[in-house]
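Example 9 (inverse folding). The structure is encoded as follows.
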């Protein structure tokens, strides 16, 4: 068994260390103090640091210190408590005062809330000191009578070279039957209810469980004398540290297991006081008692360099060599974790072009010649082919063709060779630009990229048959597995060739993809794009969907030096400049080595949907707590609203943005690394601050809102302005009234004479006008209400005429039939329309609202379905009214008609509710929606009882307004979320 454990350990130790990046924080760059006692992560995702004189909260961007406590001693120690229950406690060195960290904030805790865990109940009259953490620097002093470990079901006391177990439930004491010296506590750690103590001498692990002991076998690293133990009870994490290598311990199925984390050779020098491994963000936090905080971010990328003296690490072209490595023309084989020299050659200064011919020989450009280095000689011998008085620009192999871009004088050519015989030129193709990249699309077509676009050359016709992307300087042309062709450019972005046209991809937020180099597609349809400033990842399906519909937003995930690169600048002016190896690894060249990675192993990091908090702001230099609303007093100059978001990766990748709704500028603003939104020079009023961030790879945004109210001085208020305007108007009215009275006396006699005849003429005129208005309204009502169905039938008839598919014809016939039938039923009721404005408002018979709505739903259902819109009638089957049926049908007809006209790919939901005094019908659509001006205008019509002046907003709703006034009812207009309009019809019962 020991031999097996030793073999397993040797196999385990042979695993290559994982690469990582380091962020260091101390008093010079963010930390308020250099000594860190303990580290823990709360249930909300915030990291807490215990320090001298304070506790500090870290959210990935900002350190927030808390030290405003009325304690005599602010030197805090270790964290205790329960993370899941949101109760983290910490005490100062005097063990008199404690803090309770809950709801993301620390609060002074009284003894009746939190019991000091350091001094507890005694065993045999001896004071015990609780052991909650074991680290490199812990000391077990002789003046402590008893050290103990408190578990959920019981406690272990280590005293007088013995171990005593006290059951938590019945307080029964059990003495473990073995001798135990205190110096063995340095190798103690706990997993759940199991206590383990490594014995380097016996090469065994002592296991304690509920007062019983046993010895178990484990990997020999546990019992290695050079292994140091780190255990923290509150997080449950256990680490084994051996010569700089850090392993995480786990206990499952009765076995101890180790998982390798990383190798950090400096850990022994750090005098580490605290460690925490964040598995969510793949980061290891190491707190030092003197050097502050180090954050080691484990990388999913590997960078391979050659490490040769007096040579740079700039990489360009390479070829796959084996299933997990690449080879350059310098004779160097690069693996993800090392490099080897395959053959010796002088240092190359021409690294941009290389490929392998069908015999496995290396073909590359050097000193304006084509070199062929032979595989059967171990690549030690080569031939050189040059072209007299000609310059070789580049060499390519695509679709079985061997090609070279050659310039003779000022005339560029593309040479096509006879297979791999570079001395035999089969064809010379004259070009109008130097050729920088070549792709053979099929047996006949070549895509040639140059400084002015892409030429499509036909081999059979021996000419350019298409020119794509005029004026675009093309860098690389790539064809993905689905047949799509993409090309990158010099400082002009990425393009997709579709229908022989170049369609530009949307840029990233910083426009780094303007200088994109090359792209590779993985098995999950993710596209990886190398650029001058980082490596980008985006889902190809999202890209293609955006290119087709031009809707939504395309979000790119960017990887940089923080993720493990040595340099953010990749290289792309070469052939080839990206590979997918047989083992699934991707390789891109950069200015500092080749970057290797396995796409499915590379993680993306997004916050949880509930991980954002708007709880505090800085106003006039003071921190204020925010509740449901931020209230700013008159005269404020600026306010900083802090966005608390525990996120420990690059903020650029989650598109954290904010905008102030209700202001003059409602544009989204990118939030910087300080996670602060600044308000300045905002007019008094009520606003809504909207915050959003990306929460998944699928492009889903999470939104958070905060009400903001800015109070005004009295002279800025609307009341004051109205008062001033009123006084001016009052003075004008008084002057006007005096003049009017004088003229009125003068004209009184004349008016008395004319008043009688004027009354007679007016009565006659009103009768004629009412009759004319009635006829006009009647014609308008009928023509308006049948317009949509007739237009729909006309459209279907045209499509029926143009369609040759019997299935489609049947579908069109069916739609025409259903719509015509409903239109016919509607025309039967035209007689009632002729009396619409003359009929009584109420009837003796009650009408079921659901049935009236259903009649109109059937009329418009086919029209809506044609626009991929669904109409839902959720009205109460028992709700009824005695209001005139024909008037209600005309009102419902017009509103549903408008909803159908303005809704595409959406839904129209009709509901009803009632109270003792009102019946409310709500018609909500997800269409284009009314503007704010339209809603205000129509709502205002109900408050104008006379002299209605209608704007040119359409006939239908104006008719509805008049009918609603006729039955003494009201309508309200609202904005639907996320889009559309809600119209509520309120009928008095």
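The amino acid assigned to each position is listed next.
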């Amino acid at each position: 068994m020991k031999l097996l454990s030793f073999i397993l350990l040797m196999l385990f130790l042979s695993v290559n260390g994982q690469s990582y990046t380091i962020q260091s924080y101390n008093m010079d760059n963010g930390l308020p103090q250099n000594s860190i006692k303990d580290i823990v992560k709360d249930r909300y995702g915030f990291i807490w640091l215990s320090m001298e004189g304070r506790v500090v909260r870290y959210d990935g961007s900002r350190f927030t210190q808390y030290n405003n406590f009325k304690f005599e001693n602010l030197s805090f120690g270790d964290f205790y408590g329960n993370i899941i229950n949101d109760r983290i406690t910490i005490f100062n060195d005097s063990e008199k005062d404690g803090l309770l960290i809950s709801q993301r904030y620390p609060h002074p805790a009284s003894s009746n809330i939190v019991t000091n865990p350091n001094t507890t109940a005694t065993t045999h009259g001896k004071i015990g000191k609780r052991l909650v953490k074991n680290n490199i620097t812990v000391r077990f002093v002789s003046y402590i009578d008893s050290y103990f470990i408190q578990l959920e079901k019981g406690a272990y006391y280590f005293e007088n070279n013995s171990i005593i177990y006290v059951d938590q439930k019945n307080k029964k004491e059990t003495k473990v039957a073995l001798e135990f010296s205190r110096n063995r506590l340095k190798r103690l750690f706990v997993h759940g209810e199991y206590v383990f103590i490594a014995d380097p001498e016996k090469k065994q692990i002592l296991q304690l469980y509920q007062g019983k002991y046993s010895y178990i076998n484990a990997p020999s690293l546990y019992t290695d004398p050079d292994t140091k133990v780190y255990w923290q009870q509150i997080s449950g994490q256990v680490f084994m540290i051996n010569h700089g290598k850090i392993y995480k311990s786990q206990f499952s199925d009765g076995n101890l297991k180790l998982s390798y984390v990383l190798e950090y050779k400096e850990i022994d020098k750090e005098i580490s006081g605290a460690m925490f491994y964040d598995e969510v963000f793949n980061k290891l936090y190491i707190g030092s008692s003197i050097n502050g905080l180090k954050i080691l971010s484990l990388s999913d990328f590997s960078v391979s360099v050659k490490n040769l003296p007096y040579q740079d690490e700039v990489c360009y072209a390479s070829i796959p060599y084996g299933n997990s490595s690449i080879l350059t023309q310098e004779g160097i084989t690069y693996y993800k974790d090392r490099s080897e020299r395959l053959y010796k050659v002088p240092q190359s200064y021409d690294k941009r072009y290389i490929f392998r011919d069908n015999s496995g020989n290396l073909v590359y450009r050097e000193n304006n010649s084509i070199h062929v280095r032979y595989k059967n000689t171990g690549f030690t011998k080569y031939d050189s082919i040059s072209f007299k008085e000609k310059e070789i620009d580049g060499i390519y192999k695509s679709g079985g063709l061997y090609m070279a871009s050659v310039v003779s004088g000022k005339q560029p050519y593309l040479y096509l060779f006879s297979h791999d015989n570079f001395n035999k030129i089969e064809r010379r193709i004259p070009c109008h630009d130097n050729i920088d990249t070549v792709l053979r699309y099929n047996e006949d077509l070549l895509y040639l990229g140059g400084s002015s676009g892409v030429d499509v050359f036909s081999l059979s016709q021996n000419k350019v048959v298409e020119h794509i992307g005029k004026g675009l300087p093309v860098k690389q042309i790539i064809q993905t597995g689905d047949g799509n062709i993409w090309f990158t450019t010099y400082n002009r972005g990425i393009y997709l060739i579709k229908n022989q046209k170049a369609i530009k991809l949307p840029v990233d937020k910083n426009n780094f993809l303007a200088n994109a180099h090359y792209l590779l597609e993985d098995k999950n349809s993710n596209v990886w794009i190398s650029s001058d400033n980082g490596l980008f990842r985006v889902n190809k399906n999202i890209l293609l969907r955006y290119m087709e519909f031009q809707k939504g937003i395309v979000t790119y995930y960017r990887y940089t030096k923080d993720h493990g690169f040595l340099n953010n600048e990749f290289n792309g002016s070469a052939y080839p400049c990206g590979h997918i190896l047989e083992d699934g690894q991707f390789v891109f060249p950069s200015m500092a080595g080749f970057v290797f990675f396995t796409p499915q192993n590379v993680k993306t990091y997004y916050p949880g949907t509930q991980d954002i908090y708007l709880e505090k702001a800085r106003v006039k230099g003071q921190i204020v707590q925010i509740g449901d609303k931020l209230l700013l007093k008159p005269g404020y100059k600026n306010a900083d609203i802090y966005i608390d978001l525990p996120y420990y990766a690059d903020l650029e990748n989650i598109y954290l943005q904010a905008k102030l709704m209700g202001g003059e500028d409602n544009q989204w603003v990118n939030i910087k690394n300080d996670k602060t939104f600044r308000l300045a020079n905002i007019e008094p009023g009520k606003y809504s601050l909207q915050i959003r961030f990306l929460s998944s790879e699928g492009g889903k945004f999470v939104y958070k809102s905060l009400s903001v109210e800015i109070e005004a001085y009295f002279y800025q208020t609307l009341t004051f302005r109205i008062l001033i305007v009123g006084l001016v108007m009052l003075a004008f009215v008084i002057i006007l009234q005096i003049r009017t009275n004088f003229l009125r006396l003068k004209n009184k006699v004349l008016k008395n004479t004319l008043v009688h005849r004027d009354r007679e003429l007016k009565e006659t005129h009103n009768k004629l006008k009412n009759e004319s208005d009635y006829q006009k309204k009647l014609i308008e009502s009928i023509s308006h209400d049948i317009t949509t169905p007739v237009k729909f039938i006309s459209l279907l008839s045209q499509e029926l005429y143009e369609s040759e598919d019997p299935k489609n014809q049947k579908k069109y016939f069916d739609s025409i039939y259903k719509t015509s039938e409903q239109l016919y039923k509607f025309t039967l009721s035209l007689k009632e329309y002729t009396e619409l404005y003359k009929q009584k408002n109420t009837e003796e018979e009650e009408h079921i609202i659901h049935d009236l709505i259903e009649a109109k739903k059937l009329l418009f259902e086919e029209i809506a379905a044609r626009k991929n819109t669904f109409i839902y009638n959720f009205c109460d089957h028992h709700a009824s009214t005695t209001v005139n049926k024909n008037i209600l049908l005309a009102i419902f007809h017009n509103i549903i008609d408008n909803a159908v006209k303005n809704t595409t790919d959406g839904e129209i939901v009709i509901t009803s509710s009632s109270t003792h005094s009102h019946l409310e019908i709500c018609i909500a659509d997800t269409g284009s929606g009314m503007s704010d001006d339209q809603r205000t205008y129509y709502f205002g019509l109900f408050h104008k009882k006379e002299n209605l002046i209608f704007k040119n907003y359409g006939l239908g709703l104006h008719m509805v307004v008049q009918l609603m006034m006729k039955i003494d009812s009201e309508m309200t207009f609202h904005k639907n979320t996320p889009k559309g309009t809600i119209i509520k019809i309120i009928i008095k019962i």
